[in-house]
Design brief:
Blueprint (H helix, E strand, L loop, with lengths): L2 E5 L23 E5 L14 E6 L5 H6 L8 E6 L3 H6 L3 E5 L5 E2 L6 E4 L7 E4 L3 H7 L2 E6 L3 H10 L2 E6 L17
Length: 181
């Protein structure tokens, strides 16, 4: 298993456990990492709100067709169109993390935590982010607002999904509430 951390900073030499500023419920100092399958969810700038979705193993053909999900795709990533220029111009660095001190978080799709200080094994630039996403078999899609599609994805039942940095999305939180117009 390979674990990663992504950053716009290429000069991180050590990762100290900390309480994430974006966490509303976490009160423990941790170092975060992501597994290889889910890693492309972080091939965009840190603050970019995004929704990633893919069919569940039991998804029927009509669900794949409804969401235009090709069998060879890993997942689709939906971002606000206003972020596209920043995605094109950003530089993201992939830190390979030693897996020894990390453990998975139950129910948290590919997320791992360490309670110890971690020194990365190596760092490398992702290069052109659009090329990196395509190479990882991720389809990048854009929309003016994420909320309406987020509600549809959550209500569909045939998709697995992850919403990242949704607090930064236009219309958050009102447009993201399932059952709301």
């Amino acid at each position: 298993m390979t674990l990663y951390h992504f950053s716009e900073n290429p000069n991180l030499e050590v990762f100290h456990p900390h309480i994430a500023k974006t966490s509303a419920i976490q009160d423990e100092a941790l170092v975060w990492a992501i597994d290889e399958w889910h890693a492309p969810m972080y091939f965009v700038p840190r603050d970019c709100p995004r929704v990633c979705f893919w069919p569940t193993p039991s998804a029927r053909l009509e669900a794949r067709q409804r969401w235009q999900l090709e069998p060879e795709q890993r997942f689709a990533m939906l971002v606000e169109a206003a972020w596209l220029a920043r995605i094109r111009s950003s530089r993201i660095y992939r830190y390979t993390m030693p897996e020894a001190s990390f453990s998975p978080i139950a129910g948290a799709r590919g997320n791992y935590i360490s309670r110890e200080t971690v020194i990365p094994l190596r760092v490398e630039p992702l290069g052109d982010l659009l090329v990196a996403l395509a190479s990882a078999r991720v389809e990048l899609r854009s929309t003016s607002r994420l909320g309406p599609v987020w509600r549809q994805i959550r209500a569909d039942g045939a998709l697995a999904y992850s919403g990242i940095r949704l607090l930064n999305a236009e219309g958050y939180p009102s447009e993201f509430l399932v059952g709301e117009a």
